Amino acid sequence: MPGAFTTYTLTALLLSVTWADHHQHPLPHHEAELSCLKLSPFNAEFAFALYKRLNAQTAAGQNTFFSPLGISTALSMLSAGASGETHSQLFSTLGYSTLNQTQVNNAYENLLHMLGQSHENEQLKVGNAVALRSNFSPKENYLTALRSHFSSEIFKVDLSKPDNAAAEINKFVANKTHDKIKDAVKDIDPDMAMMLINYVYFKGEWATRFSSELTHKADFHVNATATVQVDMMQNNDVYQIYQDAENHTTVIQLPYKGNTFMMIVLPDEGKMEEVEGYISRDYIWHWHKSVNERCVILFMPKFSVSADYSLKNILREMGIIDAFDDKADFSGLSDAANLVVTKVSHQAVLNVDEFGTEAAASTTVQISPRGGCITENVKVNTPFLVFIVEKPTRSLLFMAKINDPTAA
Ligand SMILES: *[C@@H]1O[C@H](CO)[C@@H](O)[C@H](O)[C@H]1NC(C)=O
Ligand SMILES: *[C@@H]1O[C@H](CO)[C@@H](O)[C@H](O)[C@H]1NC(C)=O
Ligand SMILES: *[C@@H]1O[C@H](CO)[C@@H](O)[C@H](O)[C@H]1NC(C)=O
Ligand SMILES: *[C@@H]1O[C@H](CO)[C@@H](O)[C@H](O)[C@H]1NC(C)=O
Asked: Sorted alphabetically, which InterPro entries does this protein's record hold (predicted)?
């Protein structure tokens, strides 16, 4: 990847909402435009709840990485076809209990529009799709909602050859993620009625690059006893930082050209668990508001991580239960089959180097009939946390815990 970044010319964004201040939005037509901001506090809370679950099931010393925005979006498309208790469980887990589906649909329409608009140069692509079994027809209303509110592309797949269908979906996702995710779907249920697909692709160039000549081998302290060798990048610049002694953390923001920044949260040595225990949207907000410009010599490892999650059990633990069992009510999606969600998969990859960051994620929700037959229808040298945030929409695009930058 080194050298592959071209220089993007970014159009200054009209909608320069200050991420830190709710009360200040110097926007001419703010009400409609800001409907996406309705989602941001809820999506952030869901992100932290999910982080805690994913982290708990990750083997000690391994890294955690996912796209909160991608997962919230895929589950919101699912909820658009759910009714009754199935719908309430999805909404309450996503944090949307105070909203109705119409509001959520409109908010996503606005959010996807804003994310698309702010990145003419393909720096950020968030999109959705539906792969439909060729002889399955969901309700027209549902497809219309997916098309208009979630900008979904819709394509048919031939499930008489499940491997080909999986290959077709994988080709679609690979194309959208610039080949960063090539096997979003590993095996496909031959009875599958449809699959909801979300992808997120981000490529950002640091506002100030690290100089490759300064990159050197250095120690990274995985824990009190283990040390690994990393390629440590170095840059001497003005950065926004905040040293939060009370909360045992150093926070540094690395802006990309454009509207997005990386926030690194570096707990004091040995304090990762404590910081992880309390970290939430409020802390991120507090830190974002507290950073100040300082001259910094920043040492940060180059790293690449990837992760692959099956989310069904975690989502069940978080309260999405009926969607996966006999009680599933997807009557908003189809009158026909007794549909149930059989699988929710998430994959994510992240590369950080001297030039910037490239990250991608896919989320797939596989929906099949229950019966099985389808009816006709600073020195970052200790473990740290990473957040990639899109400012105007306050979206947590990606989130990571890096315990060991050398573990893929
Ligand atoms: C430190 O990390 C190494 C490598 O991941 C692991 O084998 C070891 O058990 C860890 N030690 C402690 C005290 O956590
Ligand atoms: C959703 O909520 C909005 C705002 O409270 C309300 O105007 C609208 O009628 C509601 N829609 C439905 C379908 O309940
Ligand atoms: C994705 O496919 C389209 C249409 O075939 C093509 O024009 C585009 O270059 C592809 N994008 C990538 C990143 O491969
Ligand atoms: C520690 O975090 C809490 C919660 O975000 C915040 O209220 C407090 O001000 C923080 N301490 C410092 C010194 O920033």
From this structure: Serpin_dom, Serpin_fam, Serpin_sf, Serpin_sf_1, Serpin_sf_2
**Domain formed by 208-301+361-402, architecture:** Roll (2.30)
- 10 Å CB burial of residue 225 (0-12, 13-18, 19+) is exposed
Q: Which ligand is nearest to the CA of 176?
A: 3
Tokens (6 digits) for 232:
């440590």
Q: Whose CA is nearest to atom 11 of ligand 4?
A: 246
Distances in whole angstroms, Cα of residue 343 to Cα of each of 123, 185, 366: 30, 10, 5
> Which DSSP letter does residue 183 get?
-
For residue 379, what pLDDT band results from cuts at 50, 70 and 90?
A: confident
Distance in angstroms (rounded) separating the CA atoms of residues 185 and 182: 9
Residue intervals in the chain for CATH 3.30.497.10: 4-204+305-350
Q: Which amino acid is at 75?
A: L
Stretch 334-343: mean pLDDT: 86
- Cβ of 153 less than 6 Å from ligand 4: no
Residue to mutate (ligand 4; options 241, 242, 243, 244; most atoms within 8 A of CB): 244
DSSP 379: B
Identify whether the C-beta of residue 68 lies closer than 8 Å to the C-beta of residue 42.
no
Rounded to the nearest angstrom, the distance between the alpha carbon of 141 and the centre of ligand 3 is 30
Question: Superfamily assignment of 4-204+305-350 in CATH?
Answer: Antithrombin, subunit I, domain 2 (3.30.497.10)
Q: The pTM is what?
A: 0.86
Determine the distance from the C-alpha atom of residue 312 to the mean position of all C-alpha atoms in its chain, rounded to a whole number: 17
Where are the domain boundaries for CATH 2.30.39.10 in the chain?
Answer: 208-301+361-402
Question: Can you tell me the distance from the alpha carbon of 38 to that of 104, in angstroms, rounded to the nearest whole number?
Answer: 9
Confidence of residue 406 (pLDDT cuts 50, 70, 90): confident
Helix spans in 4-100 (H) = 30-33, 39-57, 68-79, 84-94
Nearest Cα neighbor of 300 from 216, 241, 225, 228 is 216
**Ligand 4 lined by 268 (C-beta under 6 Å):** no
Cβ neighbours of residue 75 under 8 Å, at least 6 residues apart?
90, 93, 94, 315, 320, 344, 365
Give the residue whose CA is nearest to atom 9 of ligand 2.
102
Ligand with smallest separation from the Cα of 180: 3
Identify the nearest ligand to the CA of 291 by its number. Answer: 4
Q: Tell me phi and psi for residue 52, to 5 degrees.
A: -60, -40
The whole-angstrom separation of Cα 53 and Cα 64 is 11
